[in-house]
Amino acid sequence: MTTLSAPLKSWPSRQPIVFLILAAVAWLALYQTLNPAAEALVAALPVDRASHLGGALQFFLYDTPKVLLLLTGVVFVMGMINSYFTPERTRALLAGRSEGAANVMAASLGIVTPFCSCSAVPLFIGFVQAGVPLGVTFSFLISAPMVNEVALTLLFGMFGWKIALLYLGLGLGVAIVAGWVIGRLKMEAYLEDWVRDMPKMSAEFEATGMTLGDRIEGGFSAVREIVGKVWPYILGGIALGALIHGYVPQDFLASFMGRDAWWSVPLAVVIGVPMYTNAAGVIPIVQALLAKGAALGTVLAFMMSVIALSLPEMIILRKVLKVRLIATFVAVVASGILLVGFVFNAVL
Known about the structure:
With 348 residues, the protein is mainly alpha-helical.
């Protein structure tokens, strides 16, 4: 007689609460050791800590493990949260809703829904087929890449909670207003014909019935996928930031990225749009620019244009949008980013 037995579950799946508590304690203990460890490593090297090279090395040796540790923790938690907000559920939540409140809801859902530029086309098609209004769809498409867990984690780790919250509010504001404006322009005729002619489909989804252990596995999967993909950008961005931190003279950047140079904001947007990078690569550079005298509004405008208006995403969206709608999308979002930059340079 043959007896069939279920496969043995991993320890996190068998005792999820205990695992989460112990993991949080270990994470916090490790985080506390980062700065002393970086200083000890620099002190052990034949380098003067007060020199340009010493400053750059301390920046790199402290920020690299700090950012990777923060990112791993937040991506793990967001991976668990994302299991509640799959793209199918997000589409069902937005289907049939009118503009206005739906723009707010779409931009908010963009924060917790797994999304990247490479999934823009299938996600866009799914939204159109489910009857989600065009402007609401754009609120989601703007918010998801710009206000994601990677951007917010890096901002929190490098600038603190005030700047992270500021960016969260600004990103949501740009996504909500830009989506609403695009919706008011009634540009459905500028979808590609094959997209406009697709049959409508139901936006229903089936509940997955996932356990806490399953969601922990989802957190691990998110860490493998996201951190495994962005760590080279993080190392590259921190290395460049360390060079700026250690070698660029104090106040040098203030001469052309300071608040007195009114043209610095549009120039930052023009430079940022064609760049091919993401939050992981650009935020360490932003930290060094601010430390050397660049204005906050200018830096925010640069960062938002890099993340929200990347040229590769425009090329991908060309498969489903006509040129006039893409140009309108870029113009509306860029106008919002410019406004953010000018306002913050004037106020702060």
